[in-house]
Amino acid sequence: MRQKRIAAIHDISGFGKCSLTVVLPILSAAGIETSVMPTAVLSTHTGGLGKCTYRDLTEDMRDYAAHWKSLNLSFDALYTGFLGSAEQIGIVSDIVDDFRTSDTLVMVDPVLADNGKLYATCTPEMAHGMKTLCKKADLIVPNLTEAAFLLGEEFYDGPYDRAYIEGVLHRLSDMGPRLVVLTGVWFSPGLLGAAGLDRDTGRITYAFSPRIEGAYHGTGDIFGSALLAGLLNEMSLRDAMQLAVDFTCGSIRRTREAGTDRRFGVNFEAGLPRFMEELGLFPVNYRVAR
């Protein structure tokens, strides 16, 4: 079978597992050729590890894309994450126009906010630009705070009810994307997960795992990468969501049990063999030790 290829447009942090340092290994483990376009290079992520170095790569991105275009490259998916400025959002929007074909899945993780607030690096101008980019996407993966900013609505914390969550899914889909996966969904204290809408079928599905208390860096990138891996390996949206929820939850649980500093990211690496098995990438007679 032809190997699928994606372009991942994210930042890269040298330490603290997130963005490209989780996107690349997860998608590669899923058998997908992964080309990367860094939007910025940081010494660490920005979550409590002191003042990090930051190298903005905005000026390189158009030439980077032009070189790819000169090679006549094509991609089965374009996957965008953290973007460092409104200008970068415009550049990525142009890249989508240049590389999209009828067979390309455009996935946008609108990294803007969490816990009811915009990230320190995000401005209202960026929030508006991200809304424009989401309109071009086939699939968006916001958390509930990002969904509120995209819709211009007030954020409130859960527990939620199904009517509210399903209303948010439909309003986000009305912006343009045919697939919407909303993260951070919970109806009761013991379970946390995601809700998804396929506009073509009108079907709404849910995926949950046991809630593990605490905030862990990089889990959104892990979830998004695992979700995309499932979809490109021909899983249904429901099954890809559950794969991503289980993989993310397992990574958090493994990290909590080891007592690892939460700032350092989660141990997704030890879960990759099981993840590959769930994707059907091992021979039938091979079984990963549980």
Automatic annotation (TrEMBL):
Name of the protein described by the UniProt record: pyridoxal kinase
Classification via Gene3D superfamilies: 3.40.1190.20
Top-tier EC class: transferase
Keyword Acetylation: no
Limits of the Pyridoxamine kinase/Phosphomethylpyrimidine kinase domain: 73-259
Gene Ontology molecular function, alphabetical: pyridoxal kinase activity
Organism, as annotated: Anaeromassilibacillus senegalensis
EC number: 2.7.1.35
Keyword field: ATP-binding, Kinase, Nucleotide-binding, Transferase
